[in-house]
Amino acid sequence: MCGIVGFIGSTNVKKTLLDGLKELEYRGYDSAGMAVMQSSKIDSFKAVGKLANLVAKTAPFEPKGFAVGIAHTRWATHGKPTEINAHPHQGRHSYIVHNGIIENYLPIKEELTKQGVGFLSQTDTEVIVHLYESFLTREQDAYRAFEQTIEAIEGAYAILLIDEGVQNTIFFAKKGSPLQIGDGDRGRFFASSDAPLIGICDNAIYLEDGSWGWATAETLSLFVGKTPMTAQKKPLPISQSSAQKEGFRFFMEKEIYEQSKVMSETLMSRVMASGVRLDELPEGFFDGVESLRLCACGTSYHAALAATYLFERLSRIEARAEIASEFHYRDPMLRNNELFIVISQSGETADTLEALKMAKRSGLKTLAICNVDNSSIVREADAALLTRAGIEKGVASTKAFATQTMVLWLLALFIAQKRGALDEEQMTAETNAARRSVKTLMVQPDRHEQIKRLSKRYLHGHGFFFIGRDLFYPLALEGALKLKEISYMHAEGYPAGEMKHGPIALADSKLFTIALMPHTLLREKMRSNVEELIARDTTLLAITSEHFAFADDVLQMDERSHPMLEFFEMMVAIQLLALEIAIRLGNDVDMPRNLAKSVTVE
Length: 602
Prior knowledge:
By secondary structure, the chain is of the alpha/beta class.
């Protein structure tokens, strides 16, 4: 997710920037950096790893008096976490920090390269600063050059830029990534979150999408498009903790609400008008691949299992999901024409890493699906696709699962392109659905309130069954796992058609069954399975877009035309259900007992 701070003032600019980054370090700790301008001279510092490394590196630097500064803590998206790829990025006389992803950076970079511009980093961010300087050369007007830069770039961004030729000024722009401005006794502040502003400013200007402009200590010029705007100030939260949680009760709740936003970043530059582009994969990567083996643990395994349905249905390629902790202790049959795919949120999952090493020793081509660049699994694999979920502080995974599933869906479509498994009309329908998933993931306040009220009726049974079929069976497994992790209540995920082969013996009024009943897949079969449970007096919560009179409770979903849109909408519902049940039971949702965020031991 990354973090940005900026400052214009006379009071210890270095300490102000470092203190601000400290409040944002949870958003990214691959690297950090700052640039400070005094008069017409800019000093810049970068360090790989946690913020402490930047603190040590800047120890001899003590700016005095009035200064302008920008700083950044990075979660790597384009380019590995190296000092060269760290922010700020520089041109000949200007420096920039940026959150987000520039979708059209490759054609801009190609054009600038033709003009003789040299690039140091692998990032999309560096393109922005060179583009600004290119416009400045033609325009001889920094303000117009910055406006043209913002008009030319596409994607999501929060940007701060300083230029040695425009003293005492910070240029800023915001689209799809948060950025706010605060005024305090010590000067003018910029940040990508409330946290660095708490205790320093009473109010903040929360920039709208499309906002851009420039600021000095005394003046603020703000535009949306070409229209000048008057800044509207709003009160800041009263504590740092609430600022980081942005008003939510728990980080897990905040992360459920963030899923729509981070999914936009997952999709950026990957979904085209009628196909999928995965620039991270080298040309010919799938040559000779005849089957897929997916290996993961926990929530990531559920994403892998869901993906097997997508690969076989869309790509027409054999796919098999494996639990990593089982896989690397048996003597599996591995074929040279298999692609071995490992999935991990942290990239440090010990069992998954061992399975990857086994596959490498056997000569298999390997691919990592991961949220952390430069993690052990990413370094070990032949290629990697980053999920771009950002920092996930809640131990029970939410947005990591959503983005893993999306990346795997895109991979299935990418392979389908290579194999000619889908015609143009089918591919367009799939990519359109992938784009619509962003809105599907938005939490509807009325539905959340309904789930909050329903949760009080699901506290005192003797267990839960989450049931589904096809794609919705792995989602049922994930729903049961979420509930187990944070409520400590017994829950199982089951294929709905398997209930009559034994588990239905447990059915009574104190058995809670959560039925995932999509409209687009096996509707009548699922209805029949649910009616078998109703006949045994189970207490049933149906999650469906259709009327279902026999359920004790119904969570009414919107009618969707694609199974994956129903999948993501139901996913949000079961995450919220687990959250609200756990909160009613008085549990610490973010730090459930006995669990850790990254399982780095067997």
